[in-house]
Amino acid sequence: MTRRIVISVLGLIAVVLGTIALPLGLLTAAQDRRDFAVDTRSAATTLASVAEERLGDRSSPRPLHHLVTALGGSGDLVLVLDQAGARVDGTARRPAVTAGQLSSGRAAAQPAVYQLDDYVLVVAPVRKDSGTGNLGVVALARPTSAVDRRITVLWLLIAGVSAAGLLAAGLARWVRRPLAGLDSAAQLLGDGQLATRSPADKGPQEVRRLAGNFNQMAARLEALVHGHQATMADVSHQLRTPLAALRLRLELLAQDSDEAVASELAGAQEEIGRLSRLVNGLLAVARAENMTAAPVTIAVDAIVRSRIAAWRPAADEQGITLTAGGLEPVLVRIGDGQLEQILDNLLANALDALHPGGSLVVAAGPDGDRARVTVADNGPGMTAEQKRLAFRRFATGTSGGTGLGLAIVDRLVVSAGGTAALSDTPGGGLTVAIELPAALPERGARRIAGAGRPGAQARHDRDSGGRP
Fold it and tell me: Does residue 379 carry a pLDDT above 50?
């Protein structure tokens, strides 16, 4: 984004220079030179009028001499000749006028303007009051240094504006680098690299302050996640070990008990098993909520085939048909192993709800800019209220279930930027639809995750939660 800002600023400066500043400078400079020539011509015309009074009316030479002196004092070069070519008045320095130009001026009816290297030369006839002829000619050469200075100032001003625009582009580039670093750090943090920090010593003060706030947020997030993980590890150790010891003692006690006591002890063991599954489910939910695995690009259809193959023996054992529906190639970016865990929980829930003779169909494919995975069964389904509460913890509709399976699925899907939804299967049953952001194929790398966990591990995952 910041690169586009720099390019846009540079493009805007180029457009302004090309369509406004440069043409405006050229037009203004040309207009200044035209105005200067008009002013010089007007001064020469005035000089010719005063000279007419001196040559035609034989008046005092003083007005003409005063005017010539004033013009000469401002830097102009003046020459006044009569019709015979004799000098009447003028400045000490003669203007650079040729005899041909003077001859043409004595015969002309209008002033002639000539552009010299450093002067504007005007040769004007001294006309009679009657307009029937000329009495002489005047030549006025005015230096262009004043207008040249004004034009130079104009171009310097345009150059300054252009330099300011380029400086603005440079400032955009100055801002772009720290913003790019902040964007990269945010992406890495979102991918699970909690130790990522953004450089906070570059760019303008506002960007440095933003980077500092980001680093403070990242540090607190890292501390919170690590604290949760440490807590979960402690809970796992403190709860699992006593439960395992209690189950072992009950088994030993049942060996030396009569039938009635053994039956009661068996019921207690079942409750301990349920409590163990509940603890495992809670730990699985906590791990899902604190998942920080870096996302990788995987082929969804390959993962689905792998999990169907892993769960088919368990389905056959229950007399349930597990098949793949339409599987189209589609890629997603998700934490390594998370899609397998999602599918394992969905398949475990479905198998727990189905009776022998039931069917379970898994499909996957692209849906616009997302990947869609559906797990549809023809079981008893859910009521509207059960579907509304299904993704909450401990919301269960089956005896012995922990109500954590779909909660785990929801946490994993949301952490990957996706959504999970429940609907009725046509003809009866429940359909779980998972949508994840699709990923573009990675050039030079092919990540086809087709080797899932073995069936024994899949059965172990079923203990992490039952059907809600």
Answer: yes
Which residues make beta-bridge pairs with 431? Answer: 376, 423
For domain 2-149, give its CATH number from 3.30.450.20, 1.10.3720.10, 2.40.50.140, 3.40.50.1820: 3.30.450.20
What are the b/e assignments for 118-149, b being 16+ CB within 10 Å?
ebbbbbbbbbeeeeeebbbbbbbbbebeebee
| Residue positions counted in the chain | 468
Confidence bin at 322 (pLDDT 50/70/90): very high
CA-based nearest residue to 292, from 183, 224, 191? 191
Q: Which of 133, 87, 191 is nearest to 416 (CA)?
A: 191
Confirm whether 191-290 and 293-464 share one CATH topology: no
User: What's the predicted TM-score (pTM) here?
Assistant: 0.46
The fraction of the chain above a pLDDT of 70, given in percent, is 78
Parse the chain into domains and list their residue ranges. 2-149, 191-290, 293-464
Which residues, at least 6 apart from 366, have a Cβ–Cβ distance to it below 8 Å? 328, 330, 372, 438
pLDDT in tens, 390-430: 777 555 555 444 556 787 788 788 878 889 899 999 888 99
Identify the residue whose tokens are 């859910």: 382
- State phi, psi for 261 to the nearest 5 degrees: -65, -40
